[in-house]
Amino acid sequence: MDVELQVGREAVVRVPVATLWSAPEAVRPVDRPALATAPDVPAWIAGMDTDQQVGECVLSQLLLGERVRVTELRADGWARVIAGEQPAAGLDPRGYPGWLPAAHLTTGPANPTATGPDASAAALVVDATVTALHAAPDGPVTLSGVILGTRLAAAGRAVDGWRAVHAPGRADPLWVPEGDVVPLPTEWPEAKEVLAVAERFRDLVYIWGGMSSHGIDCSGLVHLAWRRFGVTLPRDAHAQAERTTPLALGDERPGDLYFFARPGRRIHHVGIVSTEPHGGERRMLHACYLQRRVVEERLPADREATLVGAHRV
Which residues form the NlpC/P60 domain (predicted)? Predict the structure, then answer.
């Protein structure tokens, strides 16, 4: 049985996508769908205009099953947490700090031990862009909007094309279409495999701090694509640059990363190399702040002017 959240203890995200905020006071009326006990992230995004899509009140998003450490609880239902699965050494060595509704958390285990004869295949990851967890095979939806890269624990064998999985805060297993999950990889992926996952987000709306199949930002796209393969990268672009290996420009290959910064400023943007450079032409897939969507394009002149390097994960 779950116990109450406690400061200094771990908790687990119990909703498909929980938004991490800079402060409770920073939220806007348009953000109400994302704050509900069962957050409706698509409705939240649909209700925003282009200016609201880049409001810096949003820091990041956490997926179902992510572990956090609770550092403060408020009487009005807010919890300050450290998201340990999103490294942010410049902010806190333990992970990304921020605020979210306490109702989006549970104290139950994130990845309980799988039961049954297939326990060796316990670790699963969502490979569909978005899926849902059901109360029974072909049964009603219990949790909708479960995002690519979400880790789940198997709860038994597949049955008629459905897989039983554990979900945080749920006593009984839920069911996911078997084709929507794969075993969590145990080997380092090829960069082109990561690029192929990121390409599935093409044309997705840009949301500052977004990291889901409903809306995403530049570093969120990189973080989420690598998470699908069990690799944890920092959340922000400048931190991703610090944790990756610089290359000589011209040596980059598809799946590597381009980083951008203005003179005298820290890195502010990241894109994924989409083709090998030819004749000075460079192309990348990225969540574009200016176009407000994920695009694959040749680097325009303003991007070339701020390109500070290519890196390999």
Answer: 188-313
Domains of the chain: 10-106 (2.30.30.40), 119-183 (2.30.30), 191-312 (3.90.1720.10)
Give the model's pLDDT for residue 109: 64
Query: What is the tens place of the pLDDT at every residue in 74-124?
Result: 999 999 999 999 999 899 999 999 999 999 999 976 554 433 444 445 899
Instruction: Please spell the DSSP secondary structure of 234-269, one letter per residue.
Output: -SSHHHHHHTSEEE-TT---TT-EEEE--TTS---E
Q: What is the C-alpha separation between 196 and 23, in angstroms, rounded?
A: 35
Sign of CA dihedral 303, 308, 312, 313: negative
pLDDT at 156 over 90: no
Specify the amino acid at residue 284.
Answer: M
> How far is CA 27 from its chain centroid?
20
